[in-house]
């Protein structure tokens, strides 16, 4: 007969070093084991979907920056794609290539952050975060060079991108993509992939089975770690992704370690895509002329992009006015988080933190 | 005789602290606090041992009692539910107090009544090597018996706390 | 030139190679002035105590800077560099900030224990410093049972941690303190057994005696006892709450562990005591395994205590290094590591040492033959056991395929999607 | 020089200390409701005995004065073993009876 102990309710969050924002996880803990988890979201709710109904379509672009502030470019892109689909706007070739380049750069920046923060949740004392931030900074430097902002870029526009790239951008990108980052990613692999402690901490932790993944409609690295080959860039190509050759890394076990491997591998694949896109980058305008207060015809449109966290979808309904009638975001952070309970119950607290870190949520996008 | 001034002062301070801590063990309300005061009393007793020129025993006292037994006790206390962590007394506290008082009186009487043959010897100095000699030469049989006893205690503790297989969880 | 200098300073009170000359001079002054005998004790005790406390205070202040700078360098950033030259005044600013802060105490905390815990956490470190030999004649309290004293005093710190965690009345703090107790129970055993090997070799528990043993046979104990060093280093870093074993204050899991509720200077004491304990443990390691103040012929020219401080900081750098590089273990993995590997290996090491000492004593062969032989045998054993652990005993992940699959094309099912949940086939490229 | 500096500790005072500790230990062991509390009392009594043993070893005429310390070491050994077994018993009893209140553990069986 085991010792009967009283489960204790522990609030992990909203103020906790590793909840990645103001996310709250109410865990019932029996000893070190978790018996129940309740997720409490909404601490960062800013009512963006409602606010957007009062603003014009162009004015809504900054909201998408502030949803997933670690991947602003893909947020911008997804929203602009949905409005373009609704209004039937053709986007110039050059703009499409620029969009691909910037959303892949953003993927690298976001995955750097996710990997670093994940190892930090495993308990490394800030070192991997610092290494990953070092490389993320270089990507953000390129953003700053192009659009003046590092985090909330507000770069994509309906009908193209806000600015053409400056002259010094392509040499800098070439240095980064060909000389710098490949060695950095090698370094990550050497430091992280064979690391026994990380294996012990992340292997068989936070397992997602394919059934769970499909039932909960997970996307992104979460889905791919479960062994299901799915990527919006391949399944429903947008921009010029159908002209790029790249591979989708897919895991076997669905655990936290696989997700880390997939993120590192995806960063490498992003480099591949960027090289091809730079090689094929055509001349031409970077933006079609679209009225600032665009009035798409009445109707609805849904478009999706593969954001670093998963499938980011934007559903826009227009009644013919200057502002969307209804705007809804399919936030991958929220949907990926929905399996947290199944993943963590039965694990220790330490494992739960690792699991949460491996999901790579962003509370700005989670609560919107 | 103990007649170094510093040691005399140290003895009375340590004795007062130890007795105070022991009384706190008896009268403090929380069991965990009682364990912590007990640990403090153990450390005070170790100081008394140093005064009595038994440095090896003193260090062993700190290591075993303050380091291990007190920790084990806190562990056991934490295994019990919060409601049971009271240091309350049973209804027998009054007879127990009387009995303890009687024992004290007897001890005091005996110790003051007996004519002790006091040897005027100096401090023992380093005792570890001499104790080792004593343990392995004249007292080797008790030493081995003690090791068997520790082994038995270990096995017994494991058997007692082992989760029996087949029993429902 | 050096010899001339040495003749000038030898046996004079300004011979800083051995600060005991200075205290002897003071004792002589008191004796000449017909001072009472107890005054000599009090004065020499006070001198040593002041020396040690000021060293510890200085260490606590300087190491804030050292640790942050070194870790900063490892993390490819600068570390504190604003206040004063190279940021050297940063600890002062930190201390002022901590002193100014309000000392909060939870309303439901048990006040006496809550207040006593940081003090009790700090004291053992200072106690330990008192018995360490700083030079040939420089030991404040020469204990015949020095090694036992080290073990006894260092085990007290865990009780202080438990007091802090329990009295805070905070769930995170309670988790931290329970983890400390569990870890102490497990790691005390390999620590004791690994140090037993050292004691067996040296034949004494006196710390000065262990240093003199190393001097006599011209071999650092780490050469004779590599496995014991390895075990002691890992176990003690677990006891020190440093990564990879800082589960008691695992920041990403249980916020601050036992010191979650502490603020102001009470927290400052915990913070300082952690640095102090790290330095004290480095000092213990340099005494027991690295020769203490002795370094072949170097200690005849350079003051022994300077060599000692150099060694302390060398070992301390190792601690900072592990802290800056390794992620944390989970508590069950850490305990399993202690019981399944460290303890058996420590016992194996102990048996081997006992056999070696017996052979040495009984055969009467000269140390010149025996010591190199022991170095070779024990070094081989250490390498073999570590290798065996890595190859045989380490947790295996073979049931998990490590590699990833790569798909260049994926099949997009027509809606509605099949719900069979099987892995979707695609065109696999690799 | 003041008189206090020439003071000494008589044997009776050490024995008195041991006696007081023993009495407190006895009281704790007899009166506490919690099994762990009783164990604490027993430990205190053992320590009191040790104080007495060491006092005799220090003061009293004997051909082998260190025997008292050897005895103390044995007492500590036995006390450690006893603490381990007693705590295991406490945990075991708690597993079966879900209480450590000795008033309720009165069936003389599991």
Write the layout of secondary structure elements.
The complex is a heterotetramer of chains A (368), B (169), C (430) and D (110).
Chain A: E1 8-12, E2 24-30, E3 33-40, H1 48-51, H2 61-67, H3 72-87, H4 93-121, H5 127-147, E4 156-157, E5 160-161, H6 169-193, H7 196-202, H8 210-215, H9 221-225, H10 232-235, E6 248-250, H11 256-280, E7 299-307, E8 310-318, E9 324-330, H12 332-337, H13 340-344, H14 349-359, H15 363-367
Helix pairs in contact in A: 2-3, 3-4, 4-5, 4-11, 4-14, 5-6, 6-11, 11-14
Chain B: H1 5-27, H2 31-51, H3 55-79, H4 93-113, H5 128-136, H6 140-161
Helix pairs in contact in B: 1-2, 2-3
Chain D: H1 11-31, H2 35-59, H3 67-97
Helix pairs in contact in D: 1-2, 2-3
Written overview of the protein:
In chain A, 48% of the residues lie in helices and 14% in strands. Chain A is an alpha+beta fold and 368 residues long. In chain A, the strands form 3 sheets. In chain A, strands 1-2-3 form a 3-stranded antiparallel sheet. In chain A, a hairpin with a 2-residue loop joins strand 4 and strand 5 (160-161). The mean pLDDT of chain A is 85. In chain B, 72% of the residues lie in helices and 0% in strands. The N and C termini of chain B lie far apart (62 Å). Chain B is mostly helical and 169 residues long. Chain C has 430 residues and is an all-alpha fold. Chain C contains 15 helices and 2 strands. Chain C has helices spanning 2-9, 20-32, 37-74, 90-100, 111-131, 146-167, 171-202, 207-216, 221-224, 226-239, 251-254, 264-288, 304-325, 331-363, 367-393; strands at 405-410, 426-428. In chain C, helix 6 (146-167) packs antiparallel against helix 7 (171-202), helix 7 runs antiparallel to helix 10 and helix 14 runs antiparallel to helix 15 (367-393). The longest helix of chain C has 38 residues, at 37-74. Chain C is globular, with a radius of gyration of 26 Å. Chains in contact: A-B, A-C, A-D, B-C, B-D. At the A-C interface, helix 4, helix 5, helix 7, helix 8 and strand 6 of A face helix 7, helix 11, helix 13, helix 14 and strand 1 of C.
């Amino acid at each position: 007969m085991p010792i009967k102990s009283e489960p204790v309710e522990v609030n992990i969050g909203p103020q906790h070093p590793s909840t990645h924002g103001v996310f709250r996880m109410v865990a019932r803990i029996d000893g070190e084991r978790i018996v129940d988890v309740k997720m409490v979201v909404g601490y960062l709710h800013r009512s963006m979907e409602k606010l957007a109904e009062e603003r014009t379509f162009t004015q809504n672009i900054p909201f998408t920056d502030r949803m997933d502030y670690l991947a602003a470019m893909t947020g911008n892109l997804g929203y602009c794609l949905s409005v373009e689909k609704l209004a039937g706007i053709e986007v110039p070739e050059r703009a499409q290539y620029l969009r691909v380049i910037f959303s892949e750069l953003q993927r690298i920046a976001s995955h750097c952050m996710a990997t670093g923060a994940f190892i930090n949740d495993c308990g490394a004392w800030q070192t991997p975060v610092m290494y990953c931030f070092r490389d993320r900074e270089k990507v953000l430097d390129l953003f700053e060079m192009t659009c003046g902002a590092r985090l909330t870029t507000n770069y994509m526009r309906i009908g193209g991108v806000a600015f053409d790239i400056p002259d010094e951008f392509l040499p800098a990108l070439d240095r980064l993509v060909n000389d710098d980052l490949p060695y950095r990613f090698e370094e990550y692999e050497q430091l992280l992939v064979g690391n026994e402690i990380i294996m012990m901490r992340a292997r068989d932790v936070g397992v997602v089975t394919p059934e769970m993944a499909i039932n909960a409609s997970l996307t992104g690295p979460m889905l791919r770690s479960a062994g299901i080959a799915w990527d919006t860039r391949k399944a429903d190509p947008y921009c010029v992704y159908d002209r790029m050759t790249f591979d989708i890394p897919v895991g076997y076990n669905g655990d936290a370690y696989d997700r880390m491997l997939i993120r590192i591998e995806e960063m490498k694949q992003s480099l591949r895509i960027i090289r091809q896109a730079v090689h094929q980058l055509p001349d031409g305008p970077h933006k079609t002329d679209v009225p600032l207060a665009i009035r798409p015809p009445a109707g609805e449109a849904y478009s999706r992009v593969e954001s670093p966290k998963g499938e980011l979808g934007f559903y826009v309904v227009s009644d013919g006015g200057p502002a969307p009638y209804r705007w809804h975001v399919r936030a991958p952070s929220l949907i990926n988080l929905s399996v947290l309970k199944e993943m963590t119950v039965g694990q220790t607290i330490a494992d739960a933190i690792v699991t949460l870190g491996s999901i790579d949520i962003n509370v700005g996008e989670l609560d919107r | 005789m103990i007649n170094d001034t510093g040691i005399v002062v140290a003895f009375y301070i340590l004795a007062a602290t130890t007795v105070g801590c022991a009384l706190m063990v008896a009268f403090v309300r929380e069991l965990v606090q009682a364990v912590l005061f007990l640990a403090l009393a153990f450390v005070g007793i170790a100081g008394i041992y140093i005064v009595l020129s038994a440095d090896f025993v003193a260090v062993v006292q700190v290591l075993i009692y303050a380091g291990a037994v007190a920790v084990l006790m806190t562990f056991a206390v934490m295994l019990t539910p919060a409601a049971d962590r009271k240091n309350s007394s049973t209804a027998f506290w009054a007879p127990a107090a009387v009995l303890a008082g009687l024992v004290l009186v007897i001890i005091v009487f005996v110790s003051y009544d007996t004519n002790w043959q006091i040897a005027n010897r100096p401090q023992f100095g380093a005792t570890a090597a001499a104790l080792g000699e004593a343990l392995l030469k004249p007292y080797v049989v008790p030493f081995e018996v003690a090791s068997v006893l520790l082994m038995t205690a270990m096995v017994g503790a494991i058997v007692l706390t082992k989760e029996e297989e087949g029993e429902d969880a | 030139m050096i010899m001339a200098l040495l003749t000038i300073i030898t046996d004079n009170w300004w011979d800083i190679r051995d600060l005991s000359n200075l205290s002897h001079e003071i004792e002589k002054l008191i004796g000449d002035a017909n001072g009472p005998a107890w005054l000599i004790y009090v004065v020499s005790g006070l001198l040593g105590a002041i020396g040690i406390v000021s060293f510890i205070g200085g260490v606590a202040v300087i190491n804030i800077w050292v640790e942050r700078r070194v870790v900063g360098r490892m993390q490819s950033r600068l570390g504190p560099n604003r206040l004063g030259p190279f940021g050297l005044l940063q600890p002062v600013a930190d201390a002022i900030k901590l002193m100014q802060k309000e000392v909060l105490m939870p309303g439901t905390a048990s006040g006496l224990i809550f207040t006593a815990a940081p003090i009790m956490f700090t004291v053992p470190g200072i106690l330990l410093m008192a018995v360490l030999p700083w030079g040939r004649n420089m030991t404040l309290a020469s204990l015949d049972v020095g090694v036992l004293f080290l073990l006894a005093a260092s085990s007290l710190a865990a009780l202080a941690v438990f007091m802090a965690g329990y009295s805070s009345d905070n769930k995170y703090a309670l988790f931290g303190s329970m983890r400390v107790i569990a870890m102490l129970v497990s790691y005390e055993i390999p620590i004791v057994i690994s140090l037993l090997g050292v004691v067996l070799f040296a034949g004494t528990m006196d710390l000065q005696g262990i240093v003199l043993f190393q001097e006599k046979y011209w071999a650092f104990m780490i050469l004779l006892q590599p496995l014991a060093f390895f075990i002691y280093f890992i176990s003690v870093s677990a006891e020190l709450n440093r990564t990879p074993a800082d589960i008691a204050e695992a920041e990403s899991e249980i916020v601050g562990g036992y010191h979650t509720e502490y603020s102001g200077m009470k927290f400052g004491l915990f913070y300082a005591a952690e640095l102090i304990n790290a330095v004290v443990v480095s000092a213990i390691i340099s005494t027991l395994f690295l020769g203490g103040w002795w370094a072949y012929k170097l200690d005849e020219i350079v003051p022994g205590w300077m060599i000692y401080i150099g060694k302390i900081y060398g070992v301390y750098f190792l601690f900072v290094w592990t802290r800056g590089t390794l992620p944390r273990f989970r508590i069950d993995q850490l305990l399993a590591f202690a019981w399944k590997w460290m303890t058996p290996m420590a016992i194996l090491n102990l048996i081997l040492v006992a056999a070696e000492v017996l052979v040495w004593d009984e055969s009467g062969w000269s140390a010149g033959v025996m010591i190199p032989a022991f170095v070779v045998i024990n070094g081989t054993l250490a390498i073999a056991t570590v290798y065996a652990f890595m190859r045989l005993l380490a947790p295996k992940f073979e049931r998990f395929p490590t590699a990833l699959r790569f798909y260049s094309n994926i099949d997009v099912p027509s809606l509605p999607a099949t719900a069979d949940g099987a892995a979707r086939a695609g065109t696999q490229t690799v | 020089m003041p008189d206090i500096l020439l003071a000494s500790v008589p044997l009776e005072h050490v024995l008195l200390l041991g006696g007081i500790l023993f009495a407190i230990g006895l009281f704790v062991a007899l009166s506490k409701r919690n099994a762990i509390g009783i164990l604490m009392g027993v430990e205190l009594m053992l320590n009191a005995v040790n104080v007495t043993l060491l006092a005799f070893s220090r003061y009293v005429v004997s051909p082998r004065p260190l025997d008292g310390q050897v005895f103390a070491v044995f007492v500590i050994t036995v006390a450690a073993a006893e603490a381990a077994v007693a705590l295991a018993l406490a945990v075991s009893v708690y597993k079966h009876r879900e209480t450590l209140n000795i008033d309720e553990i009165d069936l003389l069986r599991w």
